[in-house]
């Protein structure tokens, strides 16, 4: 299991925002997480209330080992998740959030965390489309299923620590460097198993082959397929030096990729935030972790641009991200 931190959005899963009443099983959920040796932090992702005061008024027993962290004014949910992860000495990708609304689920995915939801059944589809990997009627129901829920959030045998993320990206950057050496736009990718083994690798060869679909991610997937049944793998990770486009993100969804790790954002055609999972009950939204090895990827793109008078897509990308 690769989840080290459970971040609970207080209003919704633990407290009814409108009435201030305690949710069913609020204490049980926190206690079960502490017993599972997961770091538990309670905060307010919306930043609109005094969490500690509300918990006291609701009479919720807070187990020893649970941190209650107030929100900061003007902080976005993504910034809040990052701040909480920093407090725990972890990367957001090591976290699972417990939320009750689609916007909080989507914000969690954007921050790099995985998501569990405590909400009514009527919200199930919108929560799934926003990234939730499980919906539970009450905090108590989630507490009873917490071990399996956390396993769904982090099926890898390794944690997404900063060092591990950088090591994963280093392999993709090596592929990008191969592309640079052959006059291709330097974008590289790897497909990694839930145990951390590289199953496939590749770099963008669209220029030399004339195939517009020959993106690095598609090449890495194609490289892995002859030797591995990717659709039967749990915890697959797609690592790429640039944010995937809609085609590559869609391929990841089709394969059931659990996590996408990328280096540099692609405002012109990046698909993060634009693609949603299939509507099937077993479909999940990949955990998305951006900015890993960003400066190294940008350096490779700059090297390529310096040798090409008409930089095209690369020049527009570098200009758009103020690199």
From TrEMBL:
Residues 163-275 form the CMP/dCMP-type deaminase domain. GO terms for biological process: tRNA wobble adenosine to inosine editing. Gene3D superfamilies: Cytidine Deaminase, domain 2. CDD domains: nucleoside_deaminase. It comes from the Bacteria. GO terms for molecular function: tRNA-specific adenosine deaminase activity. Coiled coil: none annotated. PANTHER family: CYTOSINE DEAMINASE FAMILY MEMBER, TRNA(ADENINE(34)) DEAMINASE, CHLOROPLASTIC. This is CMP/dCMP-type deaminase domain-containing protein. The lineage of its organism: Bacteria, Pseudomonadati, Rhodothermota, Rhodothermia, Rhodothermales.
